[in-house]
Design brief:
It is a single chain. By secondary structure, the protein is α+β, with helices and mostly antiparallel strands. Among the domains are: about 5-130, 2-Layer Sandwich (Beta-Lactamase); about 250-400, Heat Shock Protein 90 (2-Layer Sandwich). Helices cover about 50% and strands about 20% of the residues. The protein has helices at about 5-25, 45-50, 75-85, 135-215, 220-245, 260-275, 295-315, 370-380, and strands at about 30-35, 40-45, 90-100, 105-115, 120-130, 255, 280-285, 290, 320-330, 330-340, 385-390, 395-400. The strands form 3 sheets. The chain has a 5-stranded antiparallel β-sheet with strand order 2-1-5-4-3, sandwiched between helices. The protein has a 5-stranded mixed β-sheet with strand order 7-9-10-12-11. A hairpin with a 4-residue loop joins strand 4 (about 105-115) and strand 5. Helix 4 packs across helix 6, helix 6 (about 260-275) packs parallel to helix 7 (about 295-315) and helix 7 (about 295-315) runs antiparallel to helix 8 (about 370-380). The longest helix is centred in the middle third of the chain and has 81 residues, at about 135-215. The protein is rod-shaped and about 165 Å long.
Length: about 400
């Protein structure tokens, strides 16, 4: 006699597990095989049999490693089946990729999941398979495209940086030319500003030997003429300071009174205009306020005034005049500068703000003044600078 109770219990357990597994596997379209805890195949679905070209008879009951001598016992599968799953939690899932060249499948994704059967005191392993050859091909193609795009972007960044650097160098060169042109005009204005005080200072100095010769060189004469000489020297020194401040670079935008900037700019320019018999009418309608860079704003004013002066002199205008009008409009400051030099020819009026465009000839103009003026007003101060013909001359309008 032999007690076969345990044997029957185990047989019933296996049958129960097989039936449970068969119900699961047939609901899955991808290849799926069910293993017991000893890694023997309990069952598989039809997709598995079709994929591996095997029958249920030669599959069920075999170790997964022995299936058709397909070398399943690679290290990563041993780690998966023998080290991870048996010691992990009740419900888990792990994926590994495996090649099956024998069945024409380059890459298969193996998804192993362990499910405990508490009612029978055991567990099974579901091994689902998915052919990801096409997915990997697409992913690799996308990765290649991404690398190509990154290379293109990198190359583009280099080209853009180079182009920006070239533009910056060009802008710096134009700014240098612009400042040099302004400096030339300023030197001329300094000469005009100093001519009268230098003449007066010369007369004061010449009086000393003359009064000494006739014995009239006394303390009162010395005190009076010394004071006159010092006033003239202070005026000339202040002129130098005014011109030096004119070329200062503003580091940050500030709120400034437009009329004050115009008045300071005209003070540097008035003697030159007087010598050329050009009248200036300054008509401030109110006290407009602007936000930006007052020194750069003054340079724009000076540039427009110089252009008006040159046009008046070149056209030999009698009763030459420049009119400046200031007012506020829609929360912005507006300045108009008008001359009576005949206006800008219609065929070039749209080009006057283009870089290096000039009608003065290469020996008298660089063509960067009005371009830089527009850049300062519209680029640096978010304003507008336009020109139009009006009446007997041209009108420049500055809005900030």
């Amino acid at each position: 006699m032999e007690d076969i109770t345990e044997r029957k219990r185990l047989a019933a357990e296996i049958q129960d597990a097989r039936e449970y597994a068969e119900n699961i596997v047939e609901t899955v379209s991808e290849p799926l095989v069910v293993l017991n805890s000893a890694l023997k195949i309990l069952t598989a679905n039809h997709s598995f049999y079709d994929t591996f070209k095997v029958t249920p008879e030669e599959t069920v009951g075999n170790f997964i490693y022995d299936l058709g001598n397909r070398q399943w016992d690679i290290p990563k599968l041993r780690v998966l089946f023998e080290e991870i799953l048996p010691h992990d939690s009740v419900l888990n899932g792990y994926e590994v990729e495996h090649n099956f060249p024998e069945i024409g499948r380059k890459i298969m994704l193996l998804n192993a999941r362990q499910i405990s059967r508490e009612d029978i005191g055991s567990h099974i392993i579901l091994l689902a398979m998915e052919d990801i050859t096409e997915r990997r091909r697409i992913e690799n193609a996308l990765a290649d495209q991404k690398r190509e795009v990154e290379e293109i972007n990198k190359s583009l960044e280099i080209r853009v940086a180079k182009a920006v650097d070239e533009l910056r160098q060009k802008d710096n060169m134009m700014l240098l030319q612009y400042r040099q042109a302004l400096m030339g005009g300023m030197i001329s204005n300094i000469a005009h500003q100093w001519r009268q005080p230098l003449n007066s200072l010369g007369l004061v100095v010449q009086q000393f030997p003359l009064f000494y010769k006739f014995g009239e060189l006394n303390e009162d004469f010395l005190r009076e003429n010394t004071a006159k000489a010092m006033d003239l020297i202070k005026f000339m020194s202040q002129t130098i300071d005014d011109f030096r401040n004119f070329f200062k670079t503003d580091k940050k935008p500030v709120t400034f009174m437009v009329n004050e900037v115009i008045a300071r700019t005209l003070s540097l320019f008035e003697e030159s205009l007087k010598d050329m018999k050009i009248g200036v009418v300054f008509n401030p309608e109110d006290e407009p306020v602007a936000n930006g860079y007052p020194h750069e704003y003054a340079q724009v004013l000076m540039n427009i005034l110089v252009n008006a002066q040159d046009a008046l002199v070149q056209n030999k205008v009698e009763d030459a005049q420049i009119a400046i009008h200031t007012f506020s409009e829609a929360g912005r400051s507006v300045v108009t500068i008008t001359d009576n030099a005949g206006g800008v020819p219609n065929e070039i009026i749209n080009k006057v703000f283009d870089p290096y465009f000039t009608t003065k000839g290469p020996d008298k103009g660089t063509g960067v003044g009005l371009y830089m003026a527009k850049t300062i007003i519209e680029g640096n101060m978010v304003g507008r600078l336009n020109v139009r013909n009006i009446g007997s001359g041209a009108e420049f309008r500055i809005e900030v």
